Amino acid sequence: MNMKKSKLKCCLLALSVTAAIVPAAVYADNQTDNLRQQVDDLQNQVDRLENTAAERNTDSSFHMAGYGSVEYADPDSGNAAFNKVLVAPIIHYNYQDWLMFETEFELSNTADGGTELALEYASINLFLNDYVALGAGNFS
Question: Do 90 and 65 touch, CB atoms closer than 8 A?
């Protein structure tokens, strides 16, 4: 009889351990499935972004820089004013590795309240090979 009780205790112990492990295993399987689905969704997003980037024209590039200034005067007579406002954008444009265009112009106000636009310089370079470049431009 002792042997039967011992076997019964072992079976009950094994059953209780199994009852505790099975829900944890099911939970882990569900978490694994959720993570797998998230990874698949992210991979699909990456694939879509790569396809979109491949369809874009990457032959051209554009860059804009420049500077600006503002003058303010406050004389003793009391007529405080902004005397001069100047904006000078510099634009660079490249097409592949054989064409480069660069220009700078100034946009400023005049004493009579108007606007003045002046081309400071413009240049274009055609790179014929690694050693020869053809350049043309207007420098004021």
Answer: yes
From first CA to last CA, the distance across the chain in angstroms is 113
3-state secondary structure of 24: helix
How far is residue 95's CA from residue 71's CA, in Å, rounded to a whole number? Answer: 38
Burial 63-85 (b: 16+ CB within 10 A, else e): eeeeeeeeeeeeeeeeeeeeeee
For residue 106, the surrounding DSSP H or E stretch is strand 99-109
Q: State the residue for tokens 């554009």.
A: 62
Residue scoring higher pLDDT (120 or 16): 120
**pTM higher than the cut 0.70:** no
Rg (CA), the chain: 37
Q: For the chain, what is the total number of helices (H) and then of strands (E)?
A: 1, 5
Amino acid at 8: L
Query: 4-29, pLDDT tens digit by residue?
Result: 666 666 666 666 666 666 566 566 66
